[in-house]
Amino acid sequence: MRIVGIGFLILIVAALIGVFTATYTVSETQSALVLRFGDPVRTINAQGEDEAGLHFKLPWEEVTRFDRRNVEFDMRPQQLQAGDQERLEVDAFLRYRIVDPRRFYESVRTEAVARGRLSSIMEDALRAVVGSIPSQDVISGQRAALMDRVESMVSASVQRANLGIEVIDVRILRADLPDEVEERVFQRMRSERQQEAARIRAEGEERAREIRAGADRESTVILANARAEADRIRGEGDAQRNRIYAQSYGQDQEFFAFYRSMEAYENALRDGTPIILPPDSEFFRYFRNESGTSN
User: Fold this and answer.
1) Residue 63 — φ and ψ, nearest 5°?
2) What is the residue extent of each domain of the chain?
3) Is 89 helix (H, G, I), strand (E, B) or coil?
4) pLDDT (tens digit per residue) in 37-46
5) What is the CATH number of domain 71-177?
6) Eight-state DSSP code of residue 127
7) Mean pLDDT in the chain?
């Protein structure tokens, strides 16, 4: 009986060990790859699947788990040469996720190896993009476009390498000049900006002179046309006035002479200028008799 009890206990322990070795759990944040003698046989809870929980395997099978969440990989700062031969210190990082655990295991095995591959790919992309544009554009003007280009190149390289990884985002945290060349480069940039400002001011002044000259020519033409039109209208008015005077003079010469004398009196006396004339002057011929005639 004692031997039977010991045997039964051994069977229970063996059964418990078998249960523990034949089951495993996968959390919602993980994907798992089941290996049989080192070869992958099936994937559990990969991207797009919902298989978290308890699972069974054969006792001689192994389970390797991977993080299915977005993973951030910070690269070490490095010096890169820009398109104008200036060196820049660039600090960047990327986010990725494992979308194919089987392919990931077959190509890189571990995340440490994957990060080494990603670091090499990132360095090549940054070197190619930064080396194609001037340093001042990297520092001040085109950071968003620069990151988009790097992300496109990294994503394409990862897809070609077939690592089972999807690149989510690439960011450049810092892109600065080394301290020993920063002041020299900034001085050159200031000089270039000053030359550009002087060129723009000169072009603006030249354009202003052209506009003023054009306005002066136009105003001269307008004034000349206006004077010519005024002279024409004045000539037509004088001609019409003389015609009316001539018609009036022909109808009653005495009245016409009287009317013109009254106009002369009005103009002369209105100015308030003293007039010295002899009493028998022709100017006052209408004052010499009571009838108001010139005789």
Assistant:
1) -125, 125
2) 2-65, 71-177, 187-251, 253-295
3) strand
4) 888 888 888 8
5) 3.30.479.30
6) H
7) 80
